[in-house]
Amino acid sequence: xxxxxxxxxxxxxxxxxxxxxxxxxxxxxxxxxxxxxxxxxxxxxxxxxxxxxxxxxxxxxxxxxxxxxxxxxxxxxxxxxxxxxxxxxxxxxxxxxxxxxxxxxxxxxxxxxxxxxxxxxxxxxxxxxxxxxxxxxxxxxxxxxxxxxxxxxxxxxxxxxxxxxxxxxxxxxxxxxxxxxxxxxxxxxxxxxxxxxxxxxxxxxxxxxxxxxxxxxxxxxxxxxxxxxxxxxxxxxxxxxxxxxxxxxxxxxxxxxxxxxxxxxxxxxxxxxxxxxxxxxxxxxxxxxxxxxxxxxxxxxxxxxxxxxxxxxxxxxxxxxxxxxxxxxxxxxxxxxxxxxxxxxxxxxxxxxxxxxxxxxxxxxxxxxxxxxxxxxxxxxxxxxxxxxxxxxxxxxxxxxxxxxxxxxxxxxxxxxxxxxxxxxxxxxxxxxxxxxxxxxxxxxxxxxxxxxxxxxxxxxxxxxxxxxxxxxxxxxxxxxxxxxxxxxxxxxx
Length: 494
Prior knowledge:
Elements: E1 2-3, E2 9-12, E3 19-21, E4 41-42, H1 52-56, H2 62-82, H3 92-104, H4 125-130, H5 133-142, H6 151-167, E5 169-170, E6 174-183, E7 191-193, E8 198-207, E9 213-218, H7 225-233, E10 242-245, H8 252-260, E11 264-269, H9 278-281, E12 291-296, E13 299-305, E14 311-316, H10 325-336, H11 341-348, H12 358-381, H13 389-409, H14 416-426, E15 445-451, E16 462-465, H15 484-493
Helix pairs in contact: 3-13, 6-12, 13-14
């Protein structure tokens, strides 16, 4: 410590790069309560999104689903030519249904995957009605969302996803930086290893009040963390926002970076950080009350002692007067508890599945975030319908799978129970149109008995009767008898 007087004491940091004073610069003082007044609001295409499916497709767009379908079919062709596996190609309708079932499976995170298709009463009807377990696993094995499994293509997809997030929401004045970890132990160009965790590290920026994710990026080992943060926060920088982070991000260089871009930052800093003066970290600098402040060139270092005698160090480029320090502490306490909320939400309901492909782990997290963002927009646009996250995911799955469920309800090759379940979930009738193999018979009773198309094939039920509408053979148990008056009345009413 260098001191020319007791009121102008100068403290040097551990790395000897920063000098701190007990007195702030008069031209840098600002009051926190009057700075940040902006609120979040939807914009762009999100303003007209009414259904859950429309909200989800703001982030995983129809163009993305089309590309996924084409790339998955290419992977299927590659597998069928090199192995004996016979996997049928998919289409966009089935791909949407597959994504819906994948999302819905996150509600049953701790269930065995195949048990969800159990037909003995322990399964979930919508899984069997939408897609078979074997088909689901085959599509999951062949699923592709990038042309190649390399980092460049994955980063392009993430940039497109971030653009969709940024185009549909204007964030409020309070923004938080977060770090998310995906467990993965296989070979990966972006895998990190610490004493406690092995996996993929992601960084995200989101609205502190709505939990809306504005952008997400991969933390690459060959890139400086501040560069990733600068890219994520570039669309949000300005004097009307406060960016809050925890001690995993906060450093003097990051604060300088935000100061140059005329943005405000507030974050907790580690007690062994080189930016701290030794006397400050040891508690030798005291003042009236539990809070002590040191000031440097447009930076403020705050030491606050909690009720349990633990000390928290905060670093910011907000240089407030002593009377405004309580506002800074209250603001950080309110926002710090919101850090990592999205990560916790993704772990509660996650579509992630066990796989050896590192790129799929990233895609699963993007889908989880898309679901959270979709619910936020859905809630803002339709304030009258308040759904829990669980019910919202159910609603979205049915909307995404409905076209494919209708098609499944009309497939005569499927078991009757599956067709009836698909029709019930899609809220449609199971009446089928005429197919190529349906026999046209002029009379209501045939000379030769044929197998009933509504009964399971294992029963092998034969009948001489057929439907007057679709000309399919039907047994008496699966048909209803109407008189001419009722048929005429029903037709006129329709």
